[in-house]
Each structure stands twice: as structure tokens, then as C-alpha cells.
């Protein structure tokens, strides 16, 4: 993280750590805190600190979703930050060098957005060239991010092609349910929810054509086994004891069995 000293590098870092939802171009709040290295104690308060610190505006820089928690019978809030605001949070979390770079980026934007008469007040042609050069560098860096995002989307699209046979390193949801239940004791409904709804769950490896004649050439979804293993290792680490036989997770509505 010490190499993150510009907004462009912050964007690359977020993409590289797979916390960006490429369908919405948002980053989930808890994942953003985690990738920035912030404490995950009292997540809501930590997120609000960042919103206040950066003067973020709801529905512009971030969105709030509400989920009913059956355990506490209260609504819990979920936060999703835009890709741009997430870059600022990550960069500001870096060293003093990174904070200075962020301020320079803000100053550059203000200079570029200023009225024409504001540019005339710069100290001669040298100052104007400095601003223009800075703008050019920013555009180059942003283009690099766009290229990386485009590449990532292409990889995702490639993974969703219909495969004639199931790869050896992939498994269907029914196999995942059986294997994870045997390993952790998690019920099928929890496995389904983690795989299909969690923000940090891996994307499917592809669709496989069902070879059984009675299936009518239907397809079924498969996931990479190693990615599923990492998903549930993280999920189990985040769980907390609820009783002698039950556990809870802040993204699951009710207690469940966990070995």
C-alpha cells in the first residue's frame, strides 16, 4: 500500500484487490475499510468517519441500503461507495506523501475548472504549462484505470461462456453445499446466501452444458473450487458465537449451525 501515492494508483489497487463491483462500479463499505487497513471494530462508525472526513454526499459519493436483522429486529445499514470516492478514501489512508498527492490532485482539478480569467492570473506561461501538463498526466493515469477495468470486464465475460464439460477445478452449487456442509456444518441456505449474495463472493467460472438427454440442453453454473474455499474461510473467520450450537454473521439474518 505504500506505493499508492496518486488517485490512479489507488484505483489500480482497488481493482487488483478485487473489491470493485464492475456492474455498479461501487465498493462495499466494510471491504473498503479492510483494504485501507482501518479497524473493523464498529464498522458503521468507521464508515461515517470517512464520509464526514471527505465531505461525501449521499447518493452522489455513496449509497445506503437497509436490511432487516431478524436477530436484533432492527434495520442494519449497508454502505456502497462510488469508485471515485473509494479512490480518495484509500489514498487519504496512505502516508503523508499520499495525502499530499491527493491534495495536489484536488488543487489541479480546481485550477482546471476555474474560469478562464483565473488561469490568466497564473505566473506567466510556465504556470499555465504546469497545469496543462498535470492535467495530461491525470488523463493518462485515468486511461490506465479505464483500460484495466475494461480488461477485467472482458475476463468476467469470458468466464460466463457455455462450456461443453465441467472443468476439473470447478464445482456446481449442489457440490459446494455438500462439501461445505461436511467441512463446516453450514446448512444449505447459508451456503446459497454466501455464494449468491455476498459482495466478496467470487464470480461464477462459467456455465456448463448439461449432458443428460432429459435436461433439454440446459446449463448449470460452476465456481472455481479454490475461490470457494477462500470465500468460506473468510466467512467463518467473520462469524461470532451466538450460543453453544449456533453462530451469527452480520450479513446473515438469523443464527445458523457452524462446527
How do the helices and strands line up, and which of them pair or pack?
Layout: H1 7-16, E1 20-21, E2 26-28, H2 29-36, H3 43-53, E3 62-69, E4 74-82, H4 83-92, H5 96-113, H6 116-120, H7 124-159, E5 162-163, E6 170-172, H8 173-184, H9 188-197, E7 206-209, E8 219-224, H10 225-238, E9 240-241, E10 246-248, E11 256-257
Parallel strand pairs: 5-7
Antiparallel strand pairs: 1-2, 2-4, 3-4, 6-8, 7-8, 9-10, 10-11
Helix pairs in contact: 1-4, 1-7, 5-7, 8-9
Would you give an account of this structure?
The chain is of the alpha+beta class and 259 residues long. It has two domains: 7-159, no CATH class; 163-257, no CATH class. 52% of the residues lie in helices and 17% in strands. The protein is built from ten helices and eleven strands. Strands 1-2-4-3 form a four-stranded antiparallel sheet. Strands 5-7-8-6 form a four-stranded mixed sheet. A hairpin with a 4-residue loop joins strand 1 and strand 2. Helix 8 (173-184) crosses helix 9. The protein is globular and about 65 Å long. 22% of the residues are buried.
Amino acid at each position: 500500500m505504500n506505493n499508492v501515492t496518486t488517485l490512479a494508483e489507488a484505483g489500480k489497487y482497488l481493482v487488483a484487490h478485487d473489491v470493485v463491483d464492475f456492474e455498479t462500479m461501487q465498493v462495499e463499505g466494510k471491504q473498503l475499510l479492510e483494504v485501507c487497513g482501518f479497524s473493523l471494530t464498529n464498522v458503521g462508525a468507521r464508515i461515517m468517519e470517512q464520509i464526514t472526513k471527505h465531505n461525501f454526499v449521499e447518493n452522489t459519493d455513496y449509497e445506503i441500503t437497509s436490511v432487516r436483522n431478524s436477530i436484533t429486529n432492527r434495520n442494519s445499514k449497508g454502505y456502497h461507495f462510488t469508485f471515485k470516492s473509494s479512490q480518495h478514501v484509500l489514498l487519504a489512508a496512505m502516508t503523508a506523501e499520499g495525502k499530499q498527492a491527493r491534495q495536489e490532485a484536488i488543487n489541479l482539478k480546481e485550477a482546471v475548472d476555474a474560469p478562464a480569467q483565473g488561469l490568466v492570473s497564473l505566473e506567466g506561461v510556465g504556470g499555465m504549462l504546469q497545469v496543462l501538463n498535470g492535467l495530461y498526466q491525470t488523463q493518462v493515469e485515468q486511461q490506465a484505470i479505464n483500460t484495466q477495468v475494461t480488461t477485467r470486464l472482458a475476463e468476467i465475460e469470458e468466464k460466463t461462456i457455455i462450456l461443453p464439460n465441467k472443468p476439473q477445478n470447478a464445482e456446481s452449487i449442489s457440490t459446494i453445499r455438500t462439501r461445505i456442509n461436511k467441512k463446516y456444518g453450514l446448512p444449505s441456505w447459508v451456503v446459497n446466501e454466501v455464494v449468491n449474495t455476498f459482495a466478496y463472493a467470487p464470480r461464477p467460472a462459467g456455465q456448463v452444458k448439461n449432458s443428460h438427454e432429459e435436461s433439454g440442453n440446459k446449463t448449470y453454473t460452476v465456481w472455481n473450487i479454490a475461490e470457494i474455499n477462500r470465500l468460506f474461510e473468510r466467512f467463518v473467520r467473520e462469524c461470532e458465537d451466538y450460543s453453544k450450537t449456533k453462530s451469527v454473521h452480520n450479513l446473515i439474518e438469523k443464527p445458523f449451525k457452524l462446527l
